[in-house]
Amino acid sequence: MHMVGLRNKQHGFTIVELLVVIVVIAILAVITVVAYNGIQNRAKDSARKSDLASMAKTVALYTVQTGNKLIDASAGCGRHGAGWWTGSYDSNPSVYQCMVDAGFKSVPQYDPVGAQYMKAVCTKDGQQVSYVLTHLQTLPYNSGFIETICDSPQLSGAWNPGIMDWDDSYGMNYGVRIAQ
Predict the structure, then answer these.
(1) E strands of 17-171, at which residues?
(2) Of 30, 50, 162, 166, whose CB is crowded by the most CB atoms within 10 A?
(3) Which residues have C-beta within 8 Å of that of residue 97, sequence separation ≥ 6?
(4) Is the pLDDT of residue 81 over 70?
């Protein structure tokens, strides 16, 4: 028996339903990417903080063992050790190289995205102090950061005004003080 009036209905989704699903998936993808980037930046900053703590302990141990505070005159390991952690200055080896030569380090510590760490020496409350510095991605830029850890760039009679610009010049916004 054949029924008259029934239409042959096709099954499937309308274009509106498909577009709604695509938009929802796109929104979820954007949320996931943003959350992932935030987690990734926090993980890199955590690695940086760990590196700085290790570097500060290494320099403090080096100071105790060798008597060399790395805060005596100008730049590089042979002098006060300020500047890039792995950078050599003139004929002076890097601070990192001093640690290797003395047997305190064997593997270099580099920033997770390839930048370098710095070691700063300055005066705070009339005392010479040393810091290891980095730029944390999750911390806001602070053009006055160095002024919060250093009163003056005066170093044992040597004047090192460049250190006061390291926050502006290199984006340094986080430091760990080296025990001396």
Answers:
(1) 83-84, 118-124, 127-134, 154-155, 158-159
(2) 166
(3) 77, 86, 88
(4) no
